[in-house]
Specification:
single chain; alpha+beta; four-stranded antiparallel sheet; 5 helices; globular; Urea carboxylase-associated protein 2; DUF1989
């Protein structure tokens, strides 16, 4: 089946939009060393959003890969990772800010460089959140697709610059109607002195219906409970709609 929608997110670029429940979204790194920061919010109630601590604690992990889900602060599943050709996606390093970008890559401004100025993750997120009635107060730790960050025995966080290769792919399936916010900006732990230039190809297709035996559902007992919370929410929504 051909994609319903395609888009290429250029280096330094940003995007946001509503992806309805039951879709699958493919992200493809068009070069090595990609980092795509992702935020998720419930499209109908944006006070509910991706919760990093609950996601990691419930699934007993510090990174995400196939089978893992992105949980909300209400214990529901916003999205699932249904396929992954990378094997490790960072959850703990956060996003870059203006000061870091200036210090690491040199000072650039829109006034002097126009659309070639070097953007930070925080600025990209802020601009997209405002479009949807949100603000910096609504920023939470993102998922950094294609990035690998480990922690050594001393507690030092280590970025692995050669983790993702050109053509690396990851697929997310939306389990709720979500507002997705993307920033194609450097990982804050990436110490390379050249601003990364890796476009990300995005595609959206309908997903197959989720069954009780789905790999993400059965990945661990906590996942199943989160899916049950999600299914119950939508059953109640359908009941209320029928009454109205």
């Amino acid at each position: 089946m051909d994609p319903l929608w395609r888009y290429t997110l250029r280096p330094g670029g940003k995007w946001s939009g509503i992806i309805r429940r039951g879709m699958q979204m493919r992200f493809t790194a068009m070069g090595p060393g990609a980092n795509l920061s992702v935020l998720l919010y419930h499209a109908r109630n944006r006070q509910e959003r991706y919760n990093m601590p609950d996601t990691l604690k419930a699934q007993h992990t510090v990174f995400l890969t196939r089978g893992n889900v992105l949980m909300s602060d209400n214990g529901r599943v916003l999205a699932s990772i249904i396929d992954d050709r990378v094997g490790w996606h960072d959850t703990i390093s956060g996003y870059s800010d203006r000061r870091q970008i200036d210090e690491q890559y040199g000072l650039t401004t829109f006034q002097s460089h126009r659309n070639d100025w070097l953007r930070s993750g925080q600025e990209n997120f802020a601009m997209e959140l405002v479009r949807h009635g949100l603000s910096l107060r609504d920023l939470v730790p993102p998922v950094n697709l294609f990035a690998k960050v480990t922690v050594d025995e001393t507690g030092q966080m280590i970025f692995h610059p050669h983790h993702a290769l050109a053509g690396s792919e990851v697929w997310l399936r939306t389990e709720m109607d979500v507002l997705m916010v993307l920033s194609n900006t450097p990982n804050p732990l990436d110490r390379r002195t050249v601003y990364p230039s890796v476009p990300i190809a995005l595609e959206v297709r309908p997903a197959s219906p989720v069954t009780e035996e789905d790999f993400c559902v059965t990945y661990c007992p906590e996942n199943r409970r989160a899916f049950e919370n999600t299914w119950e929410y939508y059953r109640l929504q359908e009941f209320v709609g029928a009454k109205e």
